[in-house]
From TrEMBL:
Protein's name in the database: SRPBCC family protein
Lineage: Bacteria, Pseudomonadati, Bacteroidota, Flavobacteriia, Flavobacteriales
CDD domains reported for this sequence: SRPBCC_3
Organism this protein belongs to: Postechiella marina
Gene3D superfamilies registered for this protein in UniProt: 3.30.530.20
């Protein structure tokens, strides 16, 4: 069983309140997701984030294949971190930790995603040629979009 990790950090010249208010609002996921993925929240984004929140959405990550994804916010500590875990979706495991902390002149955002692919050896073979490049592309888009919205550090 192979579990992969994606680890990204980004600094933004904004207050921790601004960062938290943006990042902890599920409706903003659409803003920081590439348009070709046709990200659409079906339910669960009608309240500010809380532990136990279930968010359902449709996303088209590759080859035009629509995928329903259900995540649960399992942990949330105001202005520090939150964790979302996939309950149903394309991964065998998806555990995404979002940390924010104040630094000189802004905030540091850190994403740590532990994930496992389905389909055993076939999933492992697809990882370096399909899955990892796609995740890198999505998080590069997110970095660029956040810099467009809030400025570069």
């Amino acid at each position: 069983m192979k579990i992969y990790r994606l680890h990204k950090k980004q600094n933004l010249p904004i207050s921790i309140d601004t960062a938290w208010n943006f990042l902890s609002n599920p409706k903003n996921l659409k803003t920081i997701t590439p348009e070709y993925m046709s990200f659409n929240i079906l339910s669960g984004a009608d309240r500010p984030m809380f532990a136990g929140q279930i968010i359902q959405y449709i996303v088209t990550p590759i080859l035009g294949i629509k995928t329903k994804w259900v995540t649960e916010i399992t942990h949330s500590v105001d202005k520090h971190y939150f964790v979302d875990e996939q309950r149903f979706g394309p991964y065998a495991l998806w555990h995404h930790k979002h940390f924010i902390k104040e630094i000189d002149g802004g905030v540091e955002m850190e994403d740590i995603i532990d994930y496992k692919l389905p389909f055993g050896i076939f999933g492992q073979l697809a990882h370096p040629i399909l899955v990892k490049p796609k995740l890198d592309e999505i998080f590069s888009y997110r970095t660029t979009k956040l810099e467009q919205l809030f400025g570069s550090y």
